[in-house]
Structure formats: C-alpha cells, structure tokens
Specification:
The chain is an alpha/beta fold. The chain has four domains: about 160 residues, 3-Layer(bba) Sandwich (FAD/NAD(P)-binding domain); about 120 residues, FAD/NAD(P)-binding domain (3-Layer(bba) Sandwich), CATH 3.50.50; about 120 residues, FAD/NAD(P)-binding domain (3-Layer(bba) Sandwich); about 100 residues, Rhodanese-like domain (Oxidized Rhodanese, domain 1). α1 packs parallel to α7 and α5 crosses α15. Helix content is about 30%, strand content about 25%. It starts with a strand and ends in a 12-residue tail after the last helix. The chain has 15 helices and 30 strands. About 45% of the residues are buried.
C-alpha cells in the first residue's frame, strides 16, 4: 500500500517534486495544492507576455491539473489554499478558494513549496496609485489588461532586480513610457558596479528613464513621489523591489526558521519535523563560497531540491553541495550572466578573502564573422591559490555559455590553471580558438605570478584627475576618433622607435581599445628595462561604457573626448 504525500505549492518546485515522486513510486497517493488557478506555469517567462513575445497568458501554463492526473496520476488541486498544518495529527487544513469550503487532508509526508511573495511596503497614500505585482499568470494578465486600456502610456517600475528590469524592458517594447526607480546606486546586484554600467547605458539608449540612488517616499493620484522631490507620472505602478519567503504556514506549525528569515532545512531539505520537507524560494540554502546560508530565488535550484526530496522520501541517495547562485538576464540587445561571488558581496559580508580580478574584453567569435561582438568579462580568483570565485559576462553574444563554464569550474573547485587547460569546442561562428574563458585564465595567471602590473578601468578617472602619465597605444586614427584627455598617443606599431618619449622616473599607465595591445606594450617595455609601467584593463571600450551613464546623468566633466562603444 502506498503512502500519502501532500505538496503545498504547484509551481516549479512543487510540480517537479510531484512528478519525480511518481517516477520513483507508482503506488503513492500524491496530492498537490495550489492557491491560484494554475499549476506548473513558467514563472520566469511572465514579463514576456507584456511585450507580446508570449502572446497568450495561457501559453505560460506548462501543464494543467487534468494533464497531471492523466499523465502522472497526480491529484493537482487548484484554487486550494492550505490554511494550517497539524503536525501532531499529521493533517493539513485546506480552503477551496471558489466556495470557501474547508476540509482536512492527512499525510505521511508533506512537502512545502509555497514560494515567495512580492514585498509591498506600506507607503503613504499607496491606495492612490494603480498598483501591480508580478508573481503568477493572473498577476501578469491583470497588469497587461490594465495598461493596454489606460489613458496614459506612463508606467513606473519600482525596483531594479531581475523582475523589475524584465518588466521595464517588455513594457518599453510594447510602446509604454517607462520610468525605472532603484534606491541603490545600481540595478542588478549580481553584477559589480563597473560592469552594470553597460546595462545602465542600454536602458538609457532605449528611452527607459532610469533613476538610481533615489527612493520612493509616497504617492499622489497617479504620481510617484521620490525622496529627491521628483514627481513621476504613473498610470500604473509595478512594485518589484524584491520578494519575501512565504513562511506563514511553517511559523504557525512551529517549524524552525533560519537566520535569513526563510525556512531552515537540513541537507536533505527536511525541516525540524522529519516528515515535513521544504524547497524553493521559501527556504535558506548553503553557499559553499561564503560558508553561510542565504535566500536564493532561482528556478534551477528549486528543481534540483525537488528531485532530492523525492529521492530521499524513496530512500535514494541524493547530494547537496550547496548553491553558488548562477543567473542570466536579457536587457534589450545585451545579455548578461553571473555566477559565484562578486566584489560587492565580498565587501558587504566582510569576507576574509584575498582575491584579485581579471577584467577583459574579447570577441565572442572570430572577428571577421559579420555578427561578432565584444564580450565584457570579469573573473574573480583567490590569491595565492588561483581558485575561481566568481565571474560576470555581458555582451550581445552567448554569455551564458561562458558563465556556465565558470560555474562548472567553481563547483569542481577549479583554478586558473583549469581555465587555461579547458579544451572547448570551436568554430568561427561560435567562438574563438582561445575562448574568453581560456583568455581569462591566462590573464589571471599572469597577474597571480606578478608577470606585470594592471589597474582596473574604473580607476582611470582618478588617474586623469591626478595628471598621471597615460599612454594610448592604439593607432592614430583610433586616437583621433576619441581618447582620454591628456593621454599621449604612441601606437604599438611605433613603440620601439619612440622609447625615449616614455618616462622612466614616474608611473606610466598604458591602454588600448580592449587591453590586449596595451598588455603587449607593457611586456615589451618591461623587457626593455621599464619597471614603472602598468596596464589599464579592458581599455578604452570598457572605459567608455563605464563613464557614459554618470557623465550624462550627473552632467559631470568628461575625461574622454568622445565615447567609443564599438
């Protein structure tokens, strides 16, 4: 006779647990409860309905309750809100949302996958605006129906995380005038400040009104009031400042809550009640890089947790090596991906890690290919071990392939040496023979073993303001198109003939377009006896992206004569 297994929550984690349970055991009675009208919908795809990329909201639903019953013999009950857990009697109380009828259901094993709810602070006069959040198919359909029929095209999105950016982009693509408000000094926290400036520029290029370092204070009739005093017209407001793990059921049942405020689970995802498991956005997970627990709202980890729980219930071995946090996003024509640690996180957690960084730009495929594009890449590695800690990539090409490689290396506790040795597939339409991840390994190794000195491109403004000697080794036509103010142009092709123009008694900083020619120049000069030369990482291209947004928004004096984004 089979067991009775109940699952609270029928989206990514819950639905995946249910199907894995059935694959493991045909005898168990599996019931899945979902408060809303849909189970197994593509949560991460919700914003793309706003632009029409996903035309019908029904297309977001991957499987309905009838198919669950027919294909998997799983009783998927929608419009069913779980009200409470009685651990002593091993029952849960359910309310039918459409009829208000309440009933009890017993269990042998219980899996909690309630997800997380959007955070909506109690702002003054919040009732005076048309407020929306994005959590499920009903939410996104409601938002889309409203904006399509309102009298104005003005929409304000509050919050610059993944959902906020994706909602802003898709509303913009649908023809709306979008203002995006972020209280911090940048959007998309998985990316470090100097990297995310690329996305700041892209949003500006597409006429998304990006406001950072300014927070919402209150509302008036169809208006958002910011701390700076700015007033934003808003026919609709989308609140996307983050999510909070849904823990009410767990707390009322006296299940342990971790230090993060999410449900505490062991390595098998059991709560402090061995018959109750929890997975997904509602739990805290272990990060092997920080050696701490944190909240992680990502679909991939939730699906892995679901599989592990279903296997553990069926006495199968499963592994829990923790989660390093790998994610990706599309912002108009640019793609971004990140994994592991970034500098902001290391500093925010006061982590006692000695690390260095690699900042490079390389073509995502062979340069003569017509669709080849620059890829901006940042790698963090531990000193002196060379162990890989994290990476970020932004470009128009396949950044996820590169970050997935780094994520794999991190999970295998790999190092710079491993990056250099990776044997990757190659053809001109896909990559270069020495891929950017190999290249990052070579650069990192050179830095680790002090083969040359390097300074990151985000420090150039300080160098200019201190009137340091900066040499531009690009060709003259490149220099004439745009250069750092005060920089001396000595092309790499003329370097050996013009050695006498380079001072030996003061620091000299050398740059080119992307950092490769300037590296060659530094190595040449070192071989000729110069010990005062430092390469500027990622070159003029990275510097142009880094300076652009703040130059425009703050109306500050430029350190460049012209920007170069190609």
């Amino acid at each position: 006779m089979g067991r009775k297994i109940l699952i609270v929550g029928g989206v990514a984690g819950g639905a995946s647990a249910a199907t894995r349970l059935r694959r493991n055991n045909e005898e168990d009675h599996i019931i899945m409860f979902e408060k809303g009208p849909h189970v197994s919908f593509s949560n991460c795809s919700l914003p793309y309905h706003l632009s029409g990329l996903i035309e019908n909201p029904e297309d977001l639903v991957l499987m309905n309750s009838e198919l669950f019953s027919k294909q998997y013999n799983i009783d998927a009950r929608v419009n069913s809100e779980v009200l409470s857990i009685d651990r002593k009697n091993k029952t849960i109380k359910i309310r039918k949302v459409d009829t208000d009828e309440e009933y009890l259901e017993s269990y042998d094993k219980l899996i909690l996958s309630p997800g997380a709810r959007p955070i909506v602070p109690n702002f003054p006069e919040i009732h005076k605006i048309n407020l929306f959040t994005v959590r499920n198919v009903v939410d996104i359909d409601r938002l889309n129906q409203y904006v399509q029929n309102m009298d104005t095209k003005d929409v304000t999105v509050i919050g610059g995380g993944f959902i906020g950016i994706e909602v802003a982009e898709n509303l913009n693509e649908a023809g709306f005038s979008v203002t995006l408000v972020e209280a911090a000094n940048q959007i998309l926290r998985p990316f470090d400040y100097e990297m995310v400036q690329i996305f700041h520029k892209v949003l500006m290029d597409h006429n998304v009104k990006l406001i950072v370092e300014d927070k919402v204070m209150s509302f008036e009739e169809n208006k958002v009031i910011l701390e700076s005093g700015k007033v934003i017209d808003a026919g609709a407001v989308v609140m996307a400042i983050g999510v909070s793990p849904e823990t009410s059921l767990a707390k009322e049942a006296d299940l342990a809550i971790g230090s993060t405020g999410a449900i505490k689970v062991n390595h098998n995802y059991q709560t402090n009640d061995s018959d109750i498991y929890a997975i997904g956005d509602a739990i805290e997970v272990y990060n092997p890089l920080t050696h701490s627990y944190n909240k992680l709202s990502l679909a991939g980890p939730a699906l892995k947790q679901a599989r592990s729980v279903a296997d553990h219930i069926n006495n199968k071995i499963s592994f829990n090596k923790g989660y390093i946090g790998s994610s990706a996003i599309k912002v108009f024509e640019y793609n971004g991906a990140s994994t592991g640690l970034n500098e902001a996180l290391i500093k925010a957690m006061n982590m006692n890690i000695n690390y260095d960084i690699v900042s490079i730009i390389s073509s995502d495929k062979v340069g003569i290919m017509p669709d080849a594009e620059p890829m901006h890449f940042k790698l963090l590695f531990e000193v002196p071990t060379g162990r890989i800690l994290g990476a970020q990539a932004i470009g128009k090409g396949n950044v996820t392939k590169r970050i997935d490689i780094i994520a794999t290396i991190i999970k295998l506790n790999g190092s710079l040496e491993d990056l250099m040795d990776l044997e990757l597939s190659y053809a001109p339409p896909f990559s270069t023979a020495k891929d950017i991840v190999n290249y990052a390994g070579y650069v990192g190794s050179n830095l680790l073993y002090n083969q040359y000195k390097e300074i990151n491109f985000d420090k150039v403004r300080q160098l200019v303001e201190a009137t340091n000697v900066i040499i531009d080794v690009r060709e003259k036509y490149e220099y004439d198109y745009g250069h750092i103010k005060g920089a001396i142009n000595i092309p790499l092709s003329e370097l050996r003939e013009r050695i006498d123009e380079i001072p030996r008694d003061k620091p000299v900083y050398i740059h080119c377009r992307s950092g490769q020619r300037s590296y060659n120049a530094v190595m040449t000069l070192q071989n000729l006896g110069f010990d005062n030369v430092t390469n500027i990482s990622a070159g003029y291209l990275a510097l142009s992206f880094f300076e652009y947004y703040n130059d425009k928004v703050k109306e500050r004096e430029m350190i460049l004569t012209e920007y170069n984004f190609m």
